[in-house]
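Saturday, quiet lab. Running sequence design on the structure tokens for the scaffold JK sent over.
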């Protein structure tokens, strides 16, 4: 049996099997999917507060005052942050902010500059 099994993207069952050249099915949950379409949908996308797609190296502007633990004051609304790096975690933007240093920001609190 040389049939390739692929894990189901819905229930994570390891028994997904090929139904045709481009379509796979899961025997446990009944989900059907195309692996090529699945790969395109699962691409990591980060959007700002206005729904604009962000990319590595973009510049963003903070839209509200953000408190910072251990700092004298918050990051003020209107602060421009250059050369961001996107990461797949709780705070999905890594950056350096003048006067604060390296920082993680949530994309919902910034807009693309």
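Result came back. Writing it out in full:
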């Amino acid at each position: 049996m040389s049939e390739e099994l692929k894990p189901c993207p819905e229930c994570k069952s390891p028994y997904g099997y090929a139904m045709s050249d481009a379509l796979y099915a899961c025997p446990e949950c009944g989900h059907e999917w195309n692996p090529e379409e699945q790969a395109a949908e699962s691409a990591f996308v980060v959007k700002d507060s206005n729904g604009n797609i962000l990319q590595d190296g973009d510049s963003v502007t903070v839209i509200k005052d953000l408190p910072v633990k251990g700092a004298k004051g918050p990051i003020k609304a209107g602060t421009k942050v250059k050369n961001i790096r996107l990461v797949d975690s709780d705070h999905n933007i890594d950056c350096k902010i003048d006067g604060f240093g390296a920082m993680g920001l949530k994309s919902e609190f910034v807009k693309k500059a």
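Notes for JK: The longest strand covers residues 93-97. DSSP finds one helix and eleven strands in the chain. Ask whether to fix the surface positions before the next round.
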